[in-house]
Each structure stands twice: as C-alpha cells, then as structure tokens.
Amino acid sequence: MPPSRFGASKFRNAQPYIPNREEWYRTNLPSSSSSTSSPTSTFSSEIKTNREWIVTLSPAGELSYRGYDVTFKDGVGVLKVGSGGGVGDWDLSRLEGGTLAIGGLDGSISVYSLPSPGPSPAAASLRHTIASSGAAISVLSLHPTTPDLLLASSLSQPVAIYDLSSSSTAPVIQLSAKEPKGMWSVGWSPDGRLVAGVGKSGTCYVWDPRAGADAIKSKTLNLQPLKPVRLAWVGEDIFVTSFSKTRNREYSLLSTSSSLSTTFSQSVDTNTASLIPLVDQGRRIVYLAGRGDMTLRQVELSGPMGFQESLHPLPHPLASAGLALASPTTLPVMNAQIATLLVPVVDKDGDAILPLGIRVPRRQLLDYHEDLYPDVLGTVPEQTTEEWLKGEDRLPLPISLDPSRRGAWEADLARRSQTAAEASPAPRTVGATTAAPSAVSTLTPDSKPSDEPVHPVSASTPAPDSTATAPISEPQPSSASTSVPAPSTEPDSTSSTSYKAWIITEHIAEQLEVHRTQGISGPLMVGLQGPQGCGKTTLCDGLLSYLAEAPRSLKVAVLSLDDLYRTNAGLQDIARKHPNNQLLSGRGPPGTHDVALAASVLEAVKSINDAPDRVVHLPIFDKSLCNGEGDRSENTVDVQGPLDVFILEGWSMGFAPMLEDDLTARFASGKNAEKDPYFTAHSLASLSELNDYLDEFASTVYPHFETIVAIEPTDYENVFRWRLEQEQAMKAKNGGKGMADEQVRPFVERYMPGYELWWEGIWGDERPWAGRGLKLVYGPAREVLSVEKPRGSVSPPDGASTTAPASTTTIVPTSAAITPSSTTTAPAAGTEKTPEPRKLSHEPAASAPLAAPTSQPASTAAPAAKPSPLISAAPFNPSWSRKFLGAKAPLIPSYDSLPPLATLRPDSLVLKATPHVAFFPIQGTGGRLCVHPLAKKGRMKLGGEGYLSSGVEIVDFAVELFDTGRVAVAGEDGAIRVWKVGKAGVEGVGPEAEQVLKGKGIDKVAQVEFHPTARDLLVVGSNDSIASAIRFFDLATGDEVRMCQVDAKGIFNFSWSPKGDRLAISTKDGHVLVLDPRDPSSVISGLAHDSPRSFQLEWIDDIHLISVGFSRGSQRKINLYNISAEVKTISSVLVDISPSVLFARYDPDTCILYVWGKGERVIQAYEIHPDANEPIAKLPSYTAGDAQVGACWLPKRTVDVKRVEVARVLRLTGKTMEEVSFSIPRNKPDFFQDDIYVDTLDIETPVTSAADWLAGANPAPARRSLKPDGMTPLSQAPKTTSAAKAKFVPAKDVMSEEEMKKREMDALFAKAKADESSDDEPQRGGLDPPDDDW
Q1: Are 412 and 380 in contact (CB under 8 A)?
Q2: Distance (Å, rounded) from C-alpha 599 to C-alpha 594?
Q3: Which of 2, 94, 657, 1315 is the most buried (most CB within 10 A)?
C-alpha cells in the first residue's frame, strides 16, 4: 500500500480494543519480576509469533509456546533452553515449519522445530546445533522468505549467515563491519535481499550479502552509541529507535535510496527502556512501546511530515522488554481490526499477555472492508536456501484475508501440515550421519480457471524431495523397487493434491511398465479428463513433481486441449458457419479445436524418442490476444527428447460421440423429462453438429492414447461452485480481473451438454484405453470418495437409460495407508459392487447415493444397516427422499429497515423467536433487546417497535416457547433479568424486569436457556473464577435451587436432550460432557474437535449427538457421536474452510441437520442416519443474496403442510429479517404427506414442573399431529394407474383426407337429423329477443 502524500488516512482514527480478561494469556509466561533483561541488552523481545504459535522466551531460557486460541494451561508447551547461563537472542521463523533459533551466552546456536498446535502440544524437537563461536550471541534473525537461512551476530563474528540445511557449522557468508564492540541490531529487508545493521560505534550498514562482504552503504548516525539501537525495515527504508545524545528516546527513518539520509527524526521522552518497533509492512505502520510504558505509539509513515503519530493508552504498564504483532491471518477482519498486539502486563491476577486490538471505526461491520486489508505475504516459501545463494529472490505468494477468498490457501496449509506431520524428520544434531532437510516444494493453490491454457512443461531433472508431500513407491513389478509409506488417507487428506497425484502416479507407473514390456519406443500417452474447477492444473503440477522424483526420475510433458484451439480466424469461421448454434459461438466445445494440428503434434510426440535430442514444438493458445477472444501464439514450448510420459489434459478429453439415432432418442427423452437437462436448451441440430465434430476429433486423436484418468463428481452441480471458487481465487491474485460471480454459471452451462451426452462414452469398449483407465470420484469438497478401474462398458446409452460399466474394480479410500499393490488388486469374486449409473439430468436419481469413505476394504464392507429411530417414541420413515430439499424466500423481505444491530460473542445466537415475536439485540445504551411482533410485516419503525433494556451489556438471552412468554437476558454483571412478553410485544421502552436473578459466585454467564419440558425452570451455564457450573433457577420462587459444577477448563455452551433428562456440554479443553445434572456422578465424556475454538452441540436422539466446530487450520467439521460408556466419534465430515463459527439446528422428524454461520449467505443441510453407511449425507443448500448474522427455526407447527414445507426459518441480516421456507417437492401436494409429517414433539407445552423435574421426574414429551382437518393423508390417496406414459408418436392426431371427409359427412347427417326432430315445434315470428333476455 503506497504512502499517502496528504494528511488524510483511514488508519488515523484507529482505536484500541481491550478484550475480556478471560481472553488474555496467563499461564507459563516469563516472570516480569525476575526478568534479567537489562536496559543495555540486545535481547530482541520476550514474545514472538508466527501463523500458528505465540512463543515466549525469557533471557533465563524459560520457553513456552501455545496456539492463539489456547488460554488454558494444558495447551501450552514448555521447555528449558539456552546455554552458557542463558539466552543472548532468539528468533522465530514466519514461514511454515515452526523453526525456532536460540543463541546462547556461550556462543552456541540451537535450532528447534515446533510441533503442530493442539490442546496438548508435543515437545519441540532439536534439529540443528552450531558450536560456540567463542562469544555470546547478541542478535539472531531468520530469513523472511527462505527457510533455513540464519543471520547471527556476536562479538567475534559481527555479521554471519548460516545455512541450517547444511551439515556444516561454518557460516556460508561473513559480512565485514569494523565494530570491535559488536552490533546493536541486525535485520533482513522484507524481500530478503539486503541486510542492515547498526553497530555499537553508531554506524549504520547496508549489505548485499550475495554481492560481497563489504557494505554497499554506511553512515554514522547522530545518536548515543552507548545506548541500545533497534532497527526494522519498512519497505526499502530503515526505521530506527535509539537514544539521542541527550539520552532522550527517539525514532527516525533512513532512506536507502539516498545514502541513508534521514527522512525524519522524532524525540519521544526520557524513559530509559528502548523502544521496540513492530512493523506492519502492508500499511506502512510502525507500533512502538518500551518496558514501563503505558502508551502505545502508532506511527504511520505518510503525510506531509513523513509520519503521523497516534497514541493508544494501555490499561497496565508494559511489564517486560517484549512486544509482538499477532499473525495477520488471525485478525477478526469482520470487526475492522487491523492489528493485534501482544502486550506483556501485570494485573491483579499476575503476569499476562494482553491481546490488544487496533480497530478502525466503520459505520457497519457486516461486510468485509477490503480497503483496510491489503494482501499479506504468504508463509509458504517459494525457494530453497541453495536457490537463494544462487541469486533467486522468489517471494512467497501473497494471501488474502477476505473470508470468502482465504479458503484456498488455508486448505493448502492444512494439507501441508498433515503431510509434513506424517513425513517429519527425526530430531538430529549436526555431525550425525543424517541427510540435510529436504527443500520444501510449493503446490500452487488451485486458482487458475480451467479454460486457461496450461502451458506444456517438461521435467528434465528430478525434483527435490519434498516435505510437503509424502514419498511414493516404485511400481511393484520391479524387484528392485523400494517401498516407502504412502500418503495418509484420512478423510481430510483425500482432498489434497498430493493424495490425488500419488494415486494417479501409481496408475501411470503401472501402465508405463506395460508400455515398456510391449517394446514401444515412444512415451506413454496419457489422457486426463476433469470438469471445470476440479483442479486439473494443480493436479498436473503434482504429477510432474511425483513422476520426476527419484527413484522414478521420469521426464514428463503436459499439454492442454485449450492449446489446440483453432486460430482466431478459424474460430470466427466456425461461428459464421453455424450462426444458429450458440455452443459454437466461442471456444471450448467440440468443433473449436484444430484436429489437424492435434494430429501433427501427437505424431511428433510419439516419435520424439526415435532420434537423439529430437525436439517437439508444443503450441500455445494465448487468450489475451484479439481483445480476449484469444489466438494461437507465435511462441511455442520446446520439449526435447527422450520423453517417458506425455499427458493431454482437458475437460472433454475422452468424450465419445453418440450414434445419430441414440442422440435423437436421448434428446426426445430429455424433452419429456420432468426437469429439463441442460442440453434441451439447445436444438437437436446444434447438438448433432457438435456430435459430428466430436466424432472427427475422437477418431483422429484417441488412437494415440493408451490410458486415461477421468474425474467424476458425484453431482455435476458441484462444478458451478468449483468454477466460481476458482474464479474468485484468480481475481484475488490479479487485482479483480475476471468474470463477475453471476457470469460464472452461464459460462459453465455451455459445457454441461457435453457431460450429459458424451461423458459416459469414455469407458466404451471401442476406446483404445479400454480396461486400462482410472476413474476418481470426487465429493462436494473435491475429496476422493472412491477410485475405480473400469474395464470397459457396453454401448453408449440408449435413449434416457444409462448403462453401468460392465466390470469395475473399486478402490475405496480407507483410514489405513494404501500400498500400490492393494490399489491394483480387485476385490474377491462376489464381493465387488458395481457402481450405480450416473445421473446427469435434473431428474431425481433413483440410485442410492455414493458411499462415503469407509475404514473397511471394499471387499469386506458391511452391508448398509437400516437407520434406527431417532427418538424411540416417534415413528420414523426413511423411505422418502430428502435429496430434493428446496428453499426459497420472498423477493421483498418480510421485515425491513431494522434498527442497527448489536453484536454479541462470535459464538452466540443473536436471533430468537416464538411463533409470535422475534427478539434480537440492537445498538444503544443499557443493553437493548428489540422485540418485534411477527404480525407487523414491512418497514420497521425508527428504532424498532419496542425494546427491553437490562441496564448493562447483553451477554446472552433466551426465549421461552411455553405460554408464559418469558424472556431471560444475562448481563455482563452476572445477573439474569426476566420479563414476560405477550404476543403483541412491547411499545417503545419496555417495562422493568419482573425478576432479577443473581446466583452465588457468578462471574461470567456463558449461556442461558429455558428447560425444554419443565415449567418455570431456567438453566444458566457460567464460567466462574472457582469452576464452571450449570445453575438452575426456579422462576416460581426466583431462587437458585441447584448448582452442578463442571470439571473442565471452561464451557462454551450446552444442549438439552429431546426428553430433557440429560445435558451435553462443550468444554474449552476440547471435550463433550454428557450428564444428568440431578446426578453429576453419571457424567461421561469424549474428545470432540482438536481446535480450541468454540463448537456447538445438537442432540440427534437419546444416544447420538452432533457437534459443529473446527479442526486445525480453520477446517469446519461436523462430528457425529455415539453415547454409551463414553462419547465416541463415529463419523466426521469436512464442511469447508472458514473462520466463521458454525451453528446447527436438527429436525428429528425429517432427520435433516441445518448448518449456518455468521457473515455467510448459505444455510447448508445434511441428512443424518447414524447407522447408515453414510451417516452424514450432504443435501442441497440455500443461498441468499445478503450475509446473515442470525437464524431462528420456528416451531414445527408453523409450517405450511399444504406446500409440503418442512421448516420455516427467520433469517436476520444487517437491515432485514426474511422468512425462508424449506420444502420437499411432491407430485400430490393436495394430500397430507403423512410419510413426511410424523407426529412432532410439542415443544410449546410443558409436561412437568420445576420441582418435579428436580426431584427426578422424566415424563415423556408430548406430541402433536400436523394434519389439518379435512385433509386426506397421502397413504389413503386413490391409487393411480401404473401404466407407463403413452409414447409420443409424431403426427398421430393428424387425419388423412378420407378421414376428414367422413367427419364432415357425419356432421351433416347429425345436423339434418336434429332439424327433423324439431318440426313439431311452433314457428316463431317477429324479431329475435334482445340479448338481455337470454
């Protein structure tokens, strides 16, 4: 972000935000009272951070490390480090891998690797040591863009650079500086090219380490050289904090572009502690504070004076010489927070780290304020130490903090963390006989649109080993092959590029063995087919890396079908030739490729090995030419032989044409389908033209290929979302250039006829690769659900029918490591299950859904079990399909112009309602809860119809559905205030609370909720200073009648079982507790999510629970638990990657789980059957236009059964509240759908009193029928004929000439006969009566 030339700045009015004290870090911190850091020490800071860790280290060697969400003791790792009596300096790498370098007072350097964050992190492992140089280490700095490069300074070696990937302990570069007393400060430039330092003589140096040992610039600064000096790079400038010769603290900016001239200098005060500078590179802001300060200085390097300073007061003095910026990836961006500073303080409870937020005031916080958040430098290195030493300066790819765009890089980091954990090297010490750490390879996020050209790449040399992907095995037929572990196939890793590339690599290696045994001299010709957005580009990169790795060391070239397009003139000629064919109006479908060019290129590739050093020129289609229409580039990619493997990838690779009669029949059946397939939007003539072009392409191109790999999604509707995500990721990188979101769907629809008509032909027996192909079935998140080896199929589909492959070997991903031999072995006879045919049209599929990954081999998989009843007293009917769940909302929201909303905690519900009144917090003094009658639709009054005010800020609130109409509001003061609100709500300022409940020792309320079956019973969860507790208040008396302490580090929330007899609690130490609060000894527990962030619970039935929360890397998950002797996870599904907290609502009548998050536009749905093969199955989602901040499900009795409505939801946005209707399409909606509408729980009628329930009563919940009077149940509807629909016969109602004459004669005879029968009627004379008389 360039500096402003003027005084205005969007960051000038930033305000400090102090979170609740419960969010401060308190355990295992360096003691401020025993800190040994002196005012003249070069010790950089006691706190440092990277993307995953907050690390503290005292000069005495007390090390601790924790994740950002860990505030409890068990989540902190501790270690005693240092040598020679303590630590001289240390540094933590900002790059992935958790490298930690510690310099001892004896001059030795120890390098550690931090583990992955978790509730109980493992010990840090020592991976490298450098022997003592004879003098204490004064400064350490790890390279900002390249791993394993360490800058160190000591009295004997003022500036030295070490290569930590080398077994040598000698520095690879030593820089010269005439500083007999040593250096005060040394640091890398942000891009890692230059090094700057200030010596104890007061001289500032700038070096280019790879150009020579001497400084390229130096200057003696006007400062007090006897006092500490700290420097930090800000872009190409150097920011220096020091003391003046009069010993005042000061800061200044030096320009490296003009011989280190001083841009400005500013005096501060006379404090003796040096100022610690923290730099925000993207915004050019420096934060300054020193030990003992009670003011944080924000210095923005802009404006006419060169800087603008803002002061932020601190609640406590800075307790030690430590200050750090939290990783920008952890910022709550939806709160307009631009920085989080970790400030060491001492309060009444002792030492703590205050996560101080810096927030920019904005009018609304419902949208992402993109202008506040420039892209930040990523943490995945793009080069190795060796490459840097050779002169490379590749920076990590920038990443976006936009919640809608950060999923790609977070997913990639999550995959890297998992594979790195599986392949992590053992701890080592320099001098041992271990190899140097391998270079980290980079897998580019899948952000390139699928119709972008993938320029051919040849891998001429083996790629370096990668710690980001696990190694693979050599093909089994080779007796000399070395078997190494395969990548993990846990559900999270089946979506990783490394896992998919490994599977395909094994297949290609197997086919290459067959290819070579046949004596073919040319390369193995491989086709790769995959739909838009599935990640073909990234997959090809992974294949190149895997195939080039030792021991295979194969040379591979990749060409895209897109590079075989006709020239621009040829494309225009095709469009003119078929003016009525919309599919041929642009590039992409069959007919737009240059078949002659393809034939010549493939022939040349096949013969590339016939002569030494033969070169093939692969074409490039440049889509930026001709105003975006694209044209063939004059440049080519030259591939030199010999070549082992050639891959041709494209969305339609392998598609096979249909016979003309079959195409006609398929088109007719599509026209008569209940829902039109995509191809019916085009004429039969247009499709026939494409079919002919595809026939020409297939007959010319396919004979060259020996094997094919095809990617098939379980639902081709996923392609629209994949392509949209891809486009958004691309625009995030290129500055917003690309299609708008609404343009993506029409773009993808042009390709859908190809999938519907010609995809199945890939596996035809007449294909040259028949029996040698591989199919990967992708789930909604691009995860691999199954791997199949089709052995050919029958003829292309006839009419509307689809024929299953004749024989298929199915390989299902399992939780155990898969070896190559197991992936190529067919299941035993009789156990192999042929997949159901794929349904490409929009008609409801009759086949069963694809099974989720199972931990059993395909040959021994247990048969599907029937789902069990979810509530024993309720009938359960799983037979009706939930796959066509639909949702809609009125175009005009039911409630508009809402007053400004107030935000509670990120994991709190801000909208609750009865069938008559909605409640949500609004801005204003005293904690206001808006009360709006649902009967009053339209524009709301200014400030709302009315509100309740508790006098303090709201923490949580609850609404009772019983006829009492109670509302309970918990405040920050620990008190709970209770009102009674009628169906008409309140007008203006509501009345005073009827009851104020105060429990003994309540510090902070976590959740307040009314009991689901007992009258007058309010339940409160609290996190108190002594322990967390569940408290019960009898509202009839206003007393706290029971308190149940919870043995946990704290609680997030709780959920009642359907019968109201048991409570499930989510705890802050990552567990689920289930207990009867009346008998606390009955508690059982189990592990939940491995992230310390909050998670929500929802009961499925008496023995099953659902939780929605996070795993590592912001992966949002749904976990399904079985409750028996312990709480055990039986199924887990990855939802997506997002920082937003998920909420869940389960409907036991329909077995549908609804999941949503704040700041999102989607309400997702899942079908839950705990005992089925696929316990958690994805259903269609509802997507709105505006982001939601709250959602509330109304009682089941409010649904419109005549519209087959299964749920009615109030959805709260920043300015509106809309009604969303979820329904199931049915053929006979006039009948009561008694298979869908079972008797539902009556949640509006209590069945016991508070006293009876506390005494142990557990009456069964009441049920009620949803059947309206006079509506006939579907089970009693008249049976319809089962005869098939009459076949359409063209012109069957057109009569011949003879038939027309016969009909005319019959009409004349009938008229004559009628005239004869009227002869006896009297003659009527005169005028006809007027029309009014008739």
Answers
A1: yes
A2: 9
A3: 657
| Rounded average pLDDT over 926-950 | 92
CA gap 809, 834 in Å, rounded? 8
Using an 8 Å Cβ cutoff, are 1162 and 1154 in contact? Answer: no
Quickly tell me which residue has 């005495």 as its tokens: 60
Q: Residue 476 above 80 pLDDT?
A: no
**Phi, then psi, of 1217 in degrees rounded to 5:** -135, 120
Under 8 Å between Cβ of 808 and 742: no
Helix (H) / strand (E) containing 777:
strand 774-778
Question: What percentage of residues in the chain have a pLDDT greater than 90?
Answer: 46
Mention every residue, 6+ apart, whose C-beta is less than 8 A from residue 669: 799, 800
Report the run of H or E that residue 689 belongs to, with start and end. Answer: helix 684-701
Q: For residue 786, name the pLDDT band (cuts at 50, 70, 90).
A: confident
Closest by Cα among 66, 62, 55 to 82 = 62
93: left (phi over 0), alpha (psi -120 to 50) or beta: beta
Closest CA to 448 of 497, 493, 395: 497
pTM of the predicted model, to two decimals?
0.43
The pLDDT, as a whole number, for residue 732 is: 66
The residue with tokens 């920050």 is 972
Strands 1263-1264 and 173-175: unpaired
C-alpha distance from residue 393 to each of 192, 279, 331, 396 (Å): 8, 21, 28, 10
pLDDT in tens, 355-400: 999 999 988 888 888 889 998 998 989 899 999 999 999 898 888 8
Answer for the pair 272, 231: CB distance below 8 angstroms, yes or no. no
Centre a 10 Å sphere on the Cβ of residue 830 and count the other Cβ atoms it contains: 6
Higher pLDDT residue, 524 or 122?
A: 524
Query: Could you read off the pLDDT of 1080-1102 as tens digits, one per residue?
Result: 788 999 999 988 889 999 999 99
Q: Which one-letter DSSP state was computed for residue 247?
A: -
Instruction: Say if residues 61 and 34 touch (Cβ distance below 8 Å).
Output: no
Contact 356, 326 (CB under 8 A): no
Alpha-carbon distance values, 1253 to 814, 964, 1059 (Å) = 46, 18, 11
Q: Which two tokens stand for residue 904?
A: 């509670």
Helices (H), 735-786: 741-749, 752-758
Residue position matching structure tokens 């009346």: 1078
- The whole-angstrom distance between residue 988's C-alpha and the CA centroid of its chain comes to 43
Closest of 483, 347, 374 to residue 10, by C-alpha? 374
